[in-house]
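Quick start: what a row looks like.
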Amino acid sequence: MNDDVRKYIYGALTVFLVGVLVWVGIVFVNACGMSLNCSRGNALPETTPIPTLFPATLPAMEADTAPAAASDVCHVAGVDLVGAWVEAGASGTEAFQFEDANGRACEATFEDVKPLFVNANLWYSGSLSCSSCHSVNLAVSPAQLDMSSYEGILAGSRRTDDAPQGTDILGGGTWKSSLLYQFIAETHADIPGHDDALSPGLMINAGTPLPVDVTPTP
């Protein structure tokens, strides 16, 4: 091997070694800085992922001990609402008073009562409305009774097209003696739609509470 080949080999080895040393130096400086004790290489202390919180400086919130605001609607059994309306004179426009299931004095009008006669799926799941059978068409309405309007209810049952008044279904203002009460609260197995009493369990939201210093009128 001649001298020129040796020079090339030695030169390549020298360059390689110098490169390795330079690379090691760069890695060391990048990791440890210029300090020989390499404090950056120490293991990190164990920490939780939750950062340290600053001490609270605001006062603690006090629990709200005030009673919740009363509901702005009354809760009453459907049969009791109709009864209160009948006992108060069954007006089509004037307000009547009643006591709801929570013992509150409340006030309502016929517009609160009417849905009980014209809304389906109300008295029980899948029920028809009263007016779906007892309609304005007396020729096909059972008992010739129209439950679709205030005028029809007051006109009563068993009437012909030209008769303005039939049999009173409101008991002359005595609710539990009325035909309407009997067909809502009692079972009539021989009459379609009345084979079960309609009233059990039906609670509705209707009317508005009166001020606490007002009691229902008898």
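That is the whole record. The CA atoms of residues 22 and 38 lie 18 Å apart. DSSP finds seven helices and five strands in the chain.
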